[in-house]
Amino acid sequence: MLGELGRAIPADMPRYALKIEYDGGPFAGWQRQKDQPSVQGAIEAALARLERDLPAIAAAGRTDAGVHALGQVAHCDMGKDWAPFRLMEALNYHLKPAPVAVVACAPVADDFHARFSARERRYLFRLVSRRAPLVHDRGQAWRVGHALDLAAMQAGAARLIGRHDFTTFRSLQCQAESPVKTLDALDVEALPYPGGGTEYRFHVRARSFLHNQVRSFVGTLERVGAGAWSPDDVSAALEARDRAACGPVSPPGGLYLERVGYPTDPFA
C-alpha cells in the first residue's frame, strides 16, 4: 500500500475515510503549502496531535484558494484502531479554531483511495443577483448587481453537456493530460434570496474536472444571463478550443465541492 507521496505504508495501518466541510476563505487551497495555511495542513496538524509520523492524507479534489467544501472526502492511515466517532471528535477538537469540520468518519478497505476510487464529483456554485452588497454571505457567494435570465443560462448550460474538448474552459496552468472530459449535468435553479434579490445555484456533475472549469462555466453563463452573450456564443466558445474565447472566470468564493460519489458510499 502506498501513501500520497508514494511512500510505502505498513499493511497493518487501518485506513479511514473522512467527510469534511470547510470555509476556504482563510486558506491557500486544499493542498499543503510551505508558507501558507491550507486545509490539508490543518487536518494533518490535527492528526499529528493524535499520533506521530502518520503518512500524508489524500483528498478527492484539490480545491483552490477561497473555494469551500460541503462534502470533501479524504482518507488517512492511522497507527492504531480508532472508533470512527472518537476519531472524528478528536480531530474536530484539535482543528479548532480553523473553519474546518470532519462531519463523518468511517473505516475503509486498504485499497480505498479518496481520489482514485471516486466515480463522480458534484460542485455547487452560488450566485446572488441584488443591488446591495452581501453581508452574511460575503465570501460565500458571488454577487452581481444586475438581473439575470434563468432560461437563457440554462439554455447556454445545455450546450456544454456531454463529452467535449474543454480547452476553452480550463486554466492555462491546468496540468491534466487531456482537455477532453464528460460533463454529466449542469443545472441552474433560482431561489428567493433573503433580504431581496435572487440566488442562482449552479449544480455541476462529472467524474472529474479541469482546473478552473466550473468557475469558467459560471462566469460564461453569467454573461448569457445578463444578455451580453447568447447560448450560441457558448457553443462557439466551446468549439473554439481556445482559452481566450472563454467568458470571465467567476470568483472562488461562490464555489463548493458538494459531494464525492464512490461505487459504495463509505459513510452509508
Structure explained in plain terms:
The chain has 268 residues and is an alpha+beta fold. It folds into 2 domains: 15-117, Alpha-Beta Plaits; 120-258, Alpha-Beta Plaits. Helices cover 21% and strands 28% of the residues. The chain has 5 helices and 10 strands, in the order E-H-E-E-H-E-E-E-H-E-E-E-H-H-E. It is globular, with a radius of gyration of 20 Å. The mean pLDDT is 95.
Mean pLDDT: 95
Largest sheet: 10 strands, mixed
**CATH topology label of the largest domain:** Alpha-Beta Plaits
Separate helix tally: 5
Number of strands: 10
CATH architecture of the largest domain: 2-Layer Sandwich
Spatial gap, N to C terminus: 25 Å
Alpha carbon gyration radius: 20 Å
CATH superfamily name of the largest domain?
Answer: Pseudouridine synthase I, catalytic domain, C-terminal subdomain
